[in-house]
Amino acid sequence: MPIFASLLFIVIAILFPLFAASAGWHGLLGIVIPCAAWAVFVFGFVWRVVVWARSPVPFRIPVTSGQQRSLSWIKADAAENPSGRWGVALRMFLEVALFRSLFRNTRTDLYKGRPVYGRTKNLWLFGWLFHASFLVILVRHLRLFSEPVVPMADTLAAVDGMFEIGVPTLYLSDLCLLAAAAFLLLRRIVIPRVRYISLAQDYIPLLLVLCIAGSGLLMRHFDKIDLVAVKELASGWICFVPTLPEGLTAVFFVHLFCVSALLVWFPLGKLMHMGGVFLSPTRNLANDSRRRRHVNPWNAPVKVHTYEEYEEEFRNQMKAVGLPVDKE
Ligand code: HEM
User: Ligand 1, closest atom to CA 145?
Assistant: First the structure.
C-alpha cells in the first residue's frame, strides 16, 4: 500500500535527524545535507525547465472553454481563449494566482442509474489555501536569511499575526497550511476513487509538508529555538562560509532535514508543476489558429492546394451553380 510506504519514509525522515543530532553529526545535518539538497534542487529544476523549453511546439492547442477569435461578428472570449500576448498574460495570471481551471472542477455522481454532474469547490479552496499559505510562510522566512530583515517579511508577519493569539503570536498562515495539507491528505485516503489512483509520490510531499509545519510550530511555540544561531547558520550557507553555531536543537534538525528531503524530491516528480505551468502550451500560447496558419517545421514538403488556388481554378463553375466566391 503506497500510504504505508510513505509513512515509513516519513518515520525515517524524522528518526534519522533525531538519531544523527544525538550522535553529534551536526555538520552533516546543518551543512552537508541542506547544501547538497539545495544544489540538487537548483540543478534539477533548471534541467527540467530547459528540457521542456527546448521541446518544439509547432501548433496551438486551443482549450475549448471560450470562443476563439475568428469572424468580427462572433464575440470572442479574451481571457479563456486569448488571441494575443496580453490575453495570454491574463490567462496565465488567473491560472497561477487563482487556480482558475481548478475552479471549474466538477464531481460526478450516480442518480437513479444516470451520471449527474455537480459543482465542487473544496479542492480549489483547500488547494489554493495550501499554496498561498506556503508562499506567505516562505516570504516570512526571509527574516532568517536577511540582515537587516527585508521589510516585506516584517509587514507580512504583522498582517499574518494580526489577531495576536498567544505569545509568540500564532500565524494564520500556519493554521491554514496545516488545515489545507491535512485536507488534501485525508481526501486521498478517505475517498476510495482518489485512493485508488494515489501513489507514494502523492502522499510523501504532503506528509513532508505536515512534518515541516509541525516541527516549525513546535520550535516557535514549545521547544524554543535560538533564532540568532539559526541566522548565523543561514548566513554561513549564503556566504559559502559554513558555520556551525551552538544552540541548534534536534527539532530544528528534523525541520531542516524534511525541508532538504522536499527540495530533493521537488525536481523528481509532480511538484515541478510549479515551473511546468509556465511552459504549458495550453496556457502560454495565443489561440490564433483560425487567423494564422501554423506550419509544422519538420513536415516533409507537401504540394498544397490552397482555397485561393481552388477558387481560381473553379471560379466559373462555382459561379455557374450559384456558389459564393471571394473574388468576382
Ligand atoms: C519548505 C520550506 C519551509 C517551510 C514550509 C517552513 C515552514 C515553517 C513553519 C510553518 C514554521 C512555523 C512558524 C512560522 O510560520 O514562522 C516554521 C518555523 C521555523 N522555521 Fe521553517 N520552513 C521552511 C524552511 C526553513 C528553513 C530552510 C529554515 C532554516 C533556516 C527554517 C527555520 C525555521 C525556524 C528557525 C523556525 C522557528 C521560527 C520562530 O521561532 O519564529 N525553516 N517553518
Answer: 30
Cα–Cα distance measured from residue 104 to residue 108, given in angstroms and rounded to the nearest whole number: 13
Q: How many helices (H) and strands (E) does the chain have?
A: 15, 2
Average pLDDT over the chain reads 93
Task: Quote the ligand 1 centre to 215 CA distance (angstroms).
Answer: 8
Cell (9 digits) for 125: 479552496
Confidence at residue 119, expressed as pLDDT on a 0 to 100 scale: 83
Tell the CATH topology of 2-300. Answer: Fumarate Reductase Cytochrome B subunit (1.20.950)
CA distances from residue 38 to 137, 209, 229, 261 in whole angstroms, order as listed: 18, 17, 20, 10
pLDDT in tens, 19-55: 999 999 999 999 999 999 999 999 999 999 999 999 9
Distance 141 CA to ligand 1 centre (A): 6
Which residue in the block uniquely carries the three cell numbers 544544489? Answer: 39
- List, for residues 81-103, the tens digit of each pLDDT value: 898 899 999 999 999 999 998 99
- DSSP state letter for 71: S
Task: Say whether pTM exceeds 0.85.
Answer: yes
Report residues whose beta carbon is within 6 angstroms of any ligand 1 atom: 134, 137, 140-141, 144, 171, 174, 177, 212-213, 216-217, 219-220, 225, 230, 234, 255-256, 259, 262
Q: What is the mean pLDDT of residues 136-145?
A: 96
String of DSSP letters for 125-182: HHHHHHHHHHHHHHHHGGGGT-SSPPHHHHHHHHHHTTT--TTTTPPHHHHHHHHHHH
CA pair distance 29, 80, nearest whole angstrom: 48
Report CA-CA distances (Å) from 141 to 99, 153, 230, 243: 24, 7, 11, 19
